[in-house]
Amino acid sequence: MAKSSLEKSHSKASNFKLTLLCLLTIVFFAVLWCGLIQLKRQETIALVITIVGAVGTVLCLALLNAFSRG
Prior knowledge:
The chain is an all-alpha fold. The chain contains 3 helices and no strands. Helix 2 packs antiparallel against helix 3.
């Protein structure tokens, strides 16, 4: 039996990729805020954490924007 285009685009693999990408975005966004909070202490590690969180968040948002089902 042939699958419809809706069934193909909403496959388990596609749902898994989207879920994983959303979870990574949440984690990087949380890291970004943790780094920003730690910047009050003026430590180098806080700056590194903030940069990693910012780059990861921007990258994940770009990947979410480019994500397509199909």
